[in-house]
Design brief:
It contains seven helices and 14 strands. With 291 residues, it is of the alpha+beta class. It has two domains: 147 residues, von Willebrand factor, type A domain (Rossmann fold, 3-Layer(aba) Sandwich), CATH 3.40.50.410; 90 residues, Immunoglobulins (Immunoglobulin-like), CATH 2.60.40.
Length: 291
């Protein structure tokens, strides 16, 4: 599977899209480079939410590896997003080119860093990594696969995923989430939320017996993407997703002017809900400076 990213991650093809080496290589040859910003944290969250799920071809019993290729320093918190993946047993390899930040690569990558972090001066030099990286990847998969894992049939997906996400009690700063738990209760839930137009992804981890959450300290008049993932001992079930917008901040109403004198006026208005202060600007009409 492959995703490209800048300020908005884009899935090029899912894990289930191709079944032969030649098909994958042909897809790579036809790939168009996506320029732009470097929101690595948002990209890693996209991979978890969009690419590593059953309906994108991710098998619950298969080992999960993510290879990050970047030529710059992230403009958001890549470490938090990477830690989320690593906490779920997903192994990250970080490859830097040109202006990549090596310290950031080491933060993002899984241990041991001598096997998971690579850095080259320019894109043509990536070819020198292929042989070693291939051997390391195959060895890591074999090592992880030999460990004791839960033997779960693929068709258990519906038994492992929550349903019926509902978003209610939306205000300018908060919203309330509820969902129906899966037949097989998870150990934990991960709730990830972030502005749809780009921004730092935040997450809350809940006990598996919980099926509701109030999100607070949100930005007003903003569309949010929300995902709820069930976390089991050795894998993550398919997530629920929703989208909703917070309300705009309320405004003061019914401005009135009274008690005019030669050098003063009195203003009155109906309060804006939730306001703690007001800023009042006045200027001499029509083009006077603000006082």
């Amino acid at each position: 599977g492959l995703s490209q990213y800048s300020s908005d991650p884009r899935t090029e093809w899912d894990l289930s899209a191709y079944s032969t080496r030649d098909q994958v290589l042909e897809a790579v040859r036809n790939l168009r480079y996506k320029g732009g910003n470097t929101f690595t944290g948002l990209a890693l969250t996209h991979v978890l939410e969009q690419n590593l799920k059953p309906d994108a071809g991710a098998r619950l019993e298969a080992e999960k590896l993510v290879i990050l290729l970047t030529d710059g320093k992230s403009q958001d918190d890549a470490n938090l997003a990477a830690q989320t993946l690593k906490n779920l047993g997903i192994e990250i390899f970080a490859i830097g080119v040109k202006n990549a930040d090596e310290a950031e690569l080491k933060q993002v990558a899984s241990e041991p860093l001598e096997l998971t972090v690579y850095n080259v001066l320019d894109f043509p030099l990536l070819s020198s990594l292929v042989g070693r990286l291939t051997r390391v990847l195959c060895t890591r998969i074999k090592e992880k696969s030999n460990k004791e894992n839960a033997d779960l049939p693929v068709n258990m997906g519906p038994q492992l995923s929550p349903t019926d996400l509902k978003i209610s009690a939306v205000t300018s700063k908060s919203m309330h989430l509820t969902w129906s738990p899966p037949p097989r209760p998870p150990k934990k839930y991960r709730v990830v939320y972030y502005p749809s137009k780009g921004g730092i992804a935040k997450e809350v981890v809940l006990d598996g017996a919980t099926s509701s959450l109030r999100l607070s300290n949100l930005t007003s008049h903003t569309e949010y993407l929300v995902s709820v993932f069930p976390v089991y001992d050795t894998f993550v079930g398919d997530g629920l997703r929703g989208v909703t917008s917070t309300l705009p901040l309320s405004s003061p109403r019914s401005l009135r002017i009274s008690e005019l004198t030669h050098n003063s006026i009195r203003l009155s208005w109906k309060a804006a809900q939730g306001a703690t202060q007001y800023l009042v600007l006045c200027s001499a009409a029509p083009d006077g400076a603000e006082d």
